[in-house]
Amino acid sequence: MLLLNVCPGESALVVWFNDNDVPNYAILSHTWGPDEISYQELVWINRIKAFSTQPNTQSSFMLMAMGMMMGNGNSGSSFGSIAEDDLLSRRGYSKIIEASREAQNLGYKYVWIDTCCIDKSSSAELQEAINSMYRWYENAEVCLVYLEDIPTPRRDGVKTASEIAKLAFETSRWSTRGWTLQELVAPAVCRFYFGDWTLMGEKVEFLEELSQTTGIPTFVFEERRSAAEVSVAERMSWAAFRKTTRIEDQAYCLLGLFDIQMPLLYGEGEKAFTRLQEQILKTTDDYSLFAWSAVTADESTYRGLLARSPVEFRDCGTIELENVISTFPIGSTPIGLRVQFEFLPDPKDKGRVVAMIRSSNSMNQRLAIRLICLDGGMQYARVDAGSVVPIDDWPTGQLRTIYVRQKLSVPPDFITPEFRCFHVGRRIANQTLPPVRIISVFPRELWNSETHELQIPNDTTEAFGVLLLRVQSHTYAHSLNFPVAFGFNRTTCHYWCKAVPNFASAAAVGARRGWQELVKEQIPAEVYDPLSGADVRHDIFVVGDSGLGINVSIKAGLCQDTIALRVNIDGLVKWG
Fold first, then answer.
1. Contact 433, 571 (CB under 8 A)
2. Sorted alphabetically, which PANTHER family does this protein's record hold (predicted)?
């Protein structure tokens, strides 16, 4: 690792040490600002100082050449662009100086600072540093926590040290950042400093205040390595409301907390958090990882088993593991996570099951999640994901091995009473097909033109919708209107679609206020029969004498996380 030499007069400012040779060192915990000093800039400052003692005619030329080599200039840049004053005036440099001075005052020769002790131009070094960072904070002799935005309080005797510390922890930006979580948990000794580097106190003095602010139990601060004894869900809850600049860092800042190492793939977005959870499942049988709850969800929300971000663990601060040893490992397969759950029937819905997750809450209630079978076999999805199910007694369920994809695949013929909307989209794009546009929708008050969805109200047993479509010839010489009707019965879970040919011209439709009822009258009775099944989930409209057919279909699917009925129409290009 790279360490900053804080002793004045020694030529080596940044020193590399192999893992077996690392000396005692202090480490800085802080929040980044816009003008931090990078590793390259710190090396540049050191070299400027070295060359400034050589008053020969070639010094300026050599400085310029070095700047170009380090990416700080080009053949047309001025000396001012690499001037020492520009770097030394930054607040980030002042922070380095003060942290170094404090480390030296405490008797340490070296300090580690993340802004300038990682060569971020090297992706390999950055990856190694992030995967090692928890260990570096854990092995430090002391962590200097700099609360830059907290001024030193006036000595008026009104507030106690405890009150001052609690207010500082509650209001400092440092308490809200993702990376500073491990910087608080890992070190045995933390010293907190106000914005002017006045000492506020040590971690051991403020255990209760830190616990109240962060949700982390005091024993985690008191006993080294005790964080590993806390359930996965509870550890995740500590990061629930912390922020990172990059979305991927929501996962990467937690690697050390779970003793995980994995490659960094910036650009993968929330997949990083999914990968973190998959890696956790390779090292533990802690089912509390499934105790998350979606921020917004209802009975129509279908999800996989893994959370999307730490915020979904916001209510997991008191979850404990049951004293049960699993003999069946969780596995990652091409068809989803393979998990063994203890199943109970769901008293709310016979079509679902309650799966116990071998965890309990502070009231000693067993916790479970609701699942639904998607294919009549072993493929399941989590439903009603906005909450977990507390169970007062401790019943024995039936062990079942199931598979759950993180990216769900809903069978097109899936049936459920929970369909929330009809989602209208294009079935196929083909240049031989005439363009099709929506010119009217019924019921209009349930139509969302932005999401292309017709809502199905929760209190509706029989949902019915109509799209009035206009088929335009390729030459735009003429057009033809025809309605497509579709419906869903919540009691029987039957759904259907029907194209109504030879209906009316655009002018005639405009003159008839009850055109929707006319459409309804032309739908054959067998369409409404649940026994018709898949036979009424597809229809075709032949365009005039051209012989071209416009296919219309309806099938089950997901829109975002919501179970919906997808109405797909050939050649659909625009909707109103």
1. yes
2. HET DOMAIN-CONTAINING PROTEIN
